Amino acid sequence: MLLIQRCRGKKQKNSKPRIAVVVHRQSTYTGRLGKFLQQSGFVLDIYRPIFGQKLPNTLKYYAGVVILGGPMSVNDSEAYIGEEIDWISLSLKENKPFLGICLGAQMLARNLGGRVGTRSDGTVEVGWYPLEATPQGKELMNWPEMVYHFHDEGIYDLPKEAVLLATGHAYPTQAFRYGDNAWGLQFHAEFTRAMMRRLVIRSAHKLTEKGAQPASAHLKGRLIYDQALSQWFENALRQIFCVSSTLA
Protein backbone atom coordinates (compact mmCIF):
# COMPACT_ATOMS: atom_id res chain seq x y z
CA MET A 1 0.00 0.00 0.00
CA LEU A 2 1.36 3.37 -1.02
CA LEU A 3 1.33 6.37 1.25
CA ILE A 4 -1.30 8.91 0.31
CA GLN A 5 -0.27 11.98 -1.66
CA ARG A 6 0.35 14.27 1.32
CA CYS A 7 3.10 11.96 2.61
CA ARG A 8 5.15 11.70 -0.56
CA GLY A 9 8.53 13.30 -0.15
CA LYS A 10 7.75 14.29 3.44
CA LYS A 11 10.51 13.72 5.99
CA GLN A 12 10.64 14.36 9.69
CA LYS A 13 13.12 17.15 10.49
CA ASN A 14 13.65 15.92 14.02
CA SER A 15 15.56 12.65 14.42
CA LYS A 16 13.25 11.86 17.34
CA PRO A 17 9.84 13.32 16.43
CA ARG A 18 7.31 13.45 19.25
CA ILE A 19 3.66 12.44 19.39
CA ALA A 20 1.29 13.88 22.01
CA VAL A 21 -0.92 11.05 23.30
CA VAL A 22 -3.96 11.74 25.50
CA VAL A 23 -5.14 8.87 27.72
CA HIS A 24 -8.08 8.62 30.11
CA ARG A 25 -6.90 6.11 32.69
CA GLN A 26 -4.16 5.91 35.30
CA SER A 27 -2.22 3.54 33.06
CA THR A 28 -0.13 5.10 30.30
CA TYR A 29 0.03 1.88 28.26
CA THR A 30 -0.91 2.53 24.63
CA GLY A 31 -0.93 -1.02 23.26
CA ARG A 32 0.28 -1.75 19.78
CA LEU A 33 -0.32 1.87 18.76
CA GLY A 34 2.51 2.97 21.03
CA LYS A 35 4.67 0.00 20.10
CA PHE A 36 4.43 0.77 16.39
CA LEU A 37 5.06 4.49 16.81
CA GLN A 38 8.06 3.93 19.06
CA GLN A 39 9.51 1.35 16.69
CA SER A 40 9.05 3.92 13.93
CA GLY A 41 11.24 6.41 15.79
CA PHE A 42 8.63 8.52 17.58
CA VAL A 43 8.79 9.57 21.22
CA LEU A 44 5.44 9.49 23.02
CA ASP A 45 4.52 12.28 25.44
CA ILE A 46 1.57 11.06 27.52
CA TYR A 47 -1.03 13.55 28.78
CA ARG A 48 -3.80 12.77 31.27
CA PRO A 49 -6.19 15.76 31.56
CA ILE A 50 -8.55 13.59 33.61
CA PHE A 51 -6.02 13.88 36.44
CA GLY A 52 -5.52 17.62 36.04
CA GLN A 53 -2.57 17.59 33.66
CA LYS A 54 -2.55 20.55 31.29
CA LEU A 55 -2.46 20.00 27.55
CA PRO A 56 0.23 21.84 25.55
CA ASN A 57 -0.78 25.23 24.18
CA THR A 58 1.23 24.70 21.00
CA LEU A 59 2.01 21.66 18.88
CA LYS A 60 5.06 23.26 17.31
CA TYR A 61 7.32 20.56 18.68
CA TYR A 62 5.01 17.65 17.87
CA ALA A 63 4.71 15.53 14.76
CA GLY A 64 1.18 14.43 15.60
CA VAL A 65 -1.56 13.89 18.17
CA VAL A 66 -3.50 10.84 19.38
CA ILE A 67 -6.52 10.82 21.70
CA LEU A 68 -7.42 7.35 22.96
CA GLY A 69 -10.65 5.95 24.38
CA GLY A 70 -12.12 5.73 27.85
CA PRO A 71 -15.32 4.88 29.73
CA MET A 72 -16.52 8.47 29.90
CA SER A 73 -18.73 10.31 27.38
CA VAL A 74 -18.20 13.45 25.33
CA ASN A 75 -21.57 14.49 26.76
CA ASP A 76 -20.28 14.45 30.34
CA SER A 77 -20.06 17.78 32.15
CA GLU A 78 -16.54 17.41 33.58
CA ALA A 79 -14.34 20.34 32.58
CA TYR A 80 -11.54 18.24 31.12
CA ILE A 81 -13.93 16.74 28.54
CA GLY A 82 -14.73 20.14 27.08
CA GLU A 83 -11.09 21.18 27.29
CA GLU A 84 -9.99 18.16 25.26
CA ILE A 85 -12.68 18.74 22.65
CA ASP A 86 -11.67 22.39 22.29
CA TRP A 87 -7.96 21.48 22.26
CA ILE A 88 -8.45 19.45 19.08
CA SER A 89 -8.88 22.77 17.26
CA LEU A 90 -5.18 23.41 17.88
CA SER A 91 -4.24 20.27 15.99
CA LEU A 92 -6.57 21.16 13.14
CA LYS A 93 -5.28 24.75 13.00
CA GLU A 94 -1.64 23.66 12.99
CA ASN A 95 -2.47 20.90 10.48
CA LYS A 96 -0.88 18.14 12.54
CA PRO A 97 -1.65 14.47 11.93
CA PHE A 98 -4.43 13.58 14.37
CA LEU A 99 -5.88 10.20 15.29
CA GLY A 100 -8.87 9.78 17.58
CA ILE A 101 -9.87 6.28 18.69
CA CYS A 102 -13.33 5.55 20.11
CA LEU A 103 -13.82 8.41 22.61
CA GLY A 104 -11.09 10.31 20.76
CA ALA A 105 -12.97 9.95 17.47
CA GLN A 106 -16.16 11.12 19.15
CA MET A 107 -14.32 14.15 20.53
CA LEU A 108 -13.09 14.98 17.03
CA ALA A 109 -16.62 14.67 15.67
CA ARG A 110 -18.00 16.90 18.43
CA ASN A 111 -15.29 19.49 17.76
CA LEU A 112 -16.38 19.53 14.12
CA GLY A 113 -20.03 20.03 15.06
CA GLY A 114 -21.16 16.41 14.92
CA ARG A 115 -23.51 14.73 17.37
CA VAL A 116 -22.60 11.85 19.68
CA GLY A 117 -25.21 9.77 21.45
CA THR A 118 -26.76 6.39 22.15
CA ARG A 119 -29.13 4.48 19.90
CA SER A 120 -32.80 4.90 20.73
CA ASP A 121 -33.18 1.14 21.18
CA GLY A 122 -30.19 0.87 23.53
CA THR A 123 -28.09 -1.30 21.21
CA VAL A 124 -24.36 -1.22 21.92
CA GLU A 125 -21.28 -2.52 20.12
CA VAL A 126 -19.28 -4.64 22.55
CA GLY A 127 -17.35 -7.34 20.74
CA TRP A 128 -16.54 -8.05 17.07
CA TYR A 129 -18.73 -6.56 14.34
CA PRO A 130 -18.63 -6.30 10.53
CA LEU A 131 -17.10 -3.23 8.91
CA GLU A 132 -17.93 -1.93 5.44
CA ALA A 133 -15.58 0.50 3.73
CA THR A 134 -17.08 3.28 1.64
CA PRO A 135 -15.81 3.96 -1.90
CA GLN A 136 -13.72 6.81 -0.48
CA GLY A 137 -12.28 4.48 2.14
CA LYS A 138 -11.42 1.84 -0.43
CA GLU A 139 -9.45 4.42 -2.41
CA LEU A 140 -7.10 4.87 0.54
CA MET A 141 -6.51 1.29 1.71
CA ASN A 142 -7.86 -2.20 2.14
CA TRP A 143 -10.02 -2.61 5.25
CA PRO A 144 -10.63 -5.53 7.62
CA GLU A 145 -14.00 -7.27 7.49
CA MET A 146 -14.41 -7.40 11.28
CA VAL A 147 -13.33 -4.94 13.97
CA TYR A 148 -13.42 -4.81 17.77
CA HIS A 149 -15.70 -2.46 19.67
CA PHE A 150 -16.47 -1.47 23.25
CA HIS A 151 -18.87 1.47 23.21
CA ASP A 152 -22.48 2.44 23.78
CA GLU A 153 -22.48 5.80 21.99
CA GLY A 154 -21.89 6.60 18.36
CA ILE A 155 -21.19 9.48 15.99
CA TYR A 156 -23.98 11.11 14.01
CA ASP A 157 -24.34 14.14 11.74
CA LEU A 158 -20.75 14.49 10.55
CA PRO A 159 -20.07 17.86 8.89
CA LYS A 160 -20.22 17.77 5.10
CA GLU A 161 -16.49 18.48 4.91
CA ALA A 162 -15.72 15.19 6.67
CA VAL A 163 -15.30 12.05 4.56
CA LEU A 164 -16.91 8.83 5.78
CA LEU A 165 -14.41 6.01 5.24
CA ALA A 166 -16.18 3.03 6.80
CA THR A 167 -19.62 2.26 8.15
CA GLY A 168 -21.41 -0.42 10.16
CA HIS A 169 -24.91 -1.71 10.80
CA ALA A 170 -25.62 -0.50 14.33
CA TYR A 171 -23.55 2.69 14.23
CA PRO A 172 -23.08 4.29 10.79
CA THR A 173 -19.87 6.23 11.45
CA GLN A 174 -17.02 3.77 11.96
CA ALA A 175 -14.13 5.69 10.39
CA PHE A 176 -13.83 9.17 8.93
CA ARG A 177 -11.32 11.76 7.86
CA TYR A 178 -11.42 15.54 8.03
CA GLY A 179 -9.05 17.36 5.69
CA ASP A 180 -5.78 15.58 5.01
CA ASN A 181 -4.64 15.02 8.57
CA ALA A 182 -7.48 14.32 11.02
CA TRP A 183 -8.75 10.75 11.35
CA GLY A 184 -11.35 9.15 13.61
CA LEU A 185 -11.86 5.43 14.33
CA GLN A 186 -14.84 4.24 16.36
CA PHE A 187 -13.31 0.78 16.84
CA HIS A 188 -10.27 -0.45 18.75
CA ALA A 189 -7.37 -1.73 16.65
CA GLU A 190 -4.78 -0.78 19.27
CA PHE A 191 -5.77 -3.38 21.86
CA THR A 192 -3.38 -6.16 22.75
CA ARG A 193 -4.81 -9.46 23.97
CA ALA A 194 -4.02 -8.49 27.57
CA MET A 195 -5.81 -5.15 27.16
CA MET A 196 -8.87 -6.90 25.79
CA ARG A 197 -8.95 -9.41 28.63
CA ARG A 198 -8.66 -6.69 31.27
CA LEU A 199 -11.45 -4.69 29.69
CA VAL A 200 -13.77 -7.69 29.44
CA ILE A 201 -13.17 -8.54 33.10
CA ARG A 202 -13.36 -4.97 34.41
CA SER A 203 -16.45 -4.10 32.38
CA ALA A 204 -18.29 -7.42 32.58
CA HIS A 205 -21.54 -5.58 33.29
CA LYS A 206 -21.46 -4.19 29.74
CA LEU A 207 -21.65 -7.70 28.28
CA THR A 208 -25.31 -7.99 29.27
CA GLU A 209 -26.45 -4.94 27.31
CA LYS A 210 -28.44 -5.21 24.10
CA GLY A 211 -26.25 -6.22 21.17
CA ALA A 212 -23.20 -7.03 23.30
CA GLN A 213 -21.37 -10.31 22.80
CA PRO A 214 -20.43 -12.73 25.61
CA ALA A 215 -16.86 -12.80 26.92
CA SER A 216 -16.05 -16.01 25.06
CA ALA A 217 -16.88 -14.35 21.74
CA HIS A 218 -14.41 -11.54 22.40
CA LEU A 219 -11.44 -13.87 22.78
CA LYS A 220 -12.58 -16.34 20.12
CA GLY A 221 -13.11 -13.48 17.69
CA ARG A 222 -9.60 -12.26 18.36
CA LEU A 223 -8.18 -15.61 17.25
CA ILE A 224 -10.12 -15.36 14.00
CA TYR A 225 -10.06 -11.67 13.11
CA ASP A 226 -7.21 -9.93 14.89
CA GLN A 227 -4.41 -10.69 12.45
CA ALA A 228 -6.19 -8.86 9.66
CA LEU A 229 -7.10 -6.00 12.01
CA SER A 230 -3.52 -5.69 13.24
CA GLN A 231 -2.11 -5.59 9.71
CA TRP A 232 -4.66 -3.02 8.68
CA PHE A 233 -3.86 -0.85 11.70
CA GLU A 234 -0.17 -0.80 10.90
CA ASN A 235 -0.92 0.27 7.34
CA ALA A 236 -3.31 2.95 8.58
CA LEU A 237 -0.74 4.33 11.02
CA ARG A 238 1.79 4.53 8.19
CA GLN A 239 -0.63 6.69 6.25
CA ILE A 240 -1.71 8.88 9.15
CA PHE A 241 1.80 9.60 10.46
CA CYS A 242 3.66 9.30 7.13
CA VAL A 243 5.83 6.35 8.15
CA SER A 244 7.81 4.64 5.41
CA SER A 245 7.59 0.85 5.28
CA THR A 246 11.37 0.78 5.75
CA LEU A 247 11.16 2.44 9.19
CA ALA A 248 9.21 -0.13 11.17
UniProtKB/TrEMBL annotation:
All copies of domain Glutamine amidotransferase, residue ranges: 58-194
Source organism superkingdom: Bacteria
InterPro entries: ChyE-like, Class_I_gatase-like, GATASE
Pfam families referenced in this protein's UniProt entry, alphabetically: GATase
CDD domains found in the cross-reference section: GATase1_1 (cd01741)
Matching Gene3D superfamilies: 3.40.50.880
PANTHER family: GLUTAMINE AMIDOTRANSFERASE YLR126C-RELATED (PTHR42695)
Protein known as: Glutamine amidotransferase domain-containing protein
Origin organism lineage: Bacteria, Pseudomonadati, Pseudomonadota, Alphaproteobacteria, Hyphomicrobiales
